[in-house]
Amino acid sequence: MELRQTQDGRVALLAYTALDRLVRGMGPHQPWVLYPTERLGDLDSVQPYQVIYLDPEVPRELWRQPGQQEAAR
Known about the structure:
By secondary structure, this protein is of the alpha+beta class. The chain has one domain. 21% of the residues lie in helices and 18% in strands. It contains two helices and three strands, in the order E-E-H-H-E. The chain has helices at 19-26, 40-46, and strands spanning 2-5, 11-15, 51-54. Strand 1 and strand 2 (11-15) form a beta hairpin. The longest helix is centred in the N-terminal third of the chain and has 8 residues, at 19-26. The two termini are 15 Å apart. It comes from Actinomyces lilanjuaniae. This is SseB protein N-terminal domain-containing protein.
């Protein structure tokens, strides 16, 4: 799970339905957490987002690198 800003300025929640899809979409150094989809409303109350993208493939130049704390923006 990660939040990114879209080109039109919205905050997007990037969520992955399986670990292999996370690695394919965000790279092998992406931290992850297991979060139940039925509780995404709880997450929105703490960290608002406007759109959810499931299993997106992010360009490799935006992937986290080993030891990187924050995602490239």
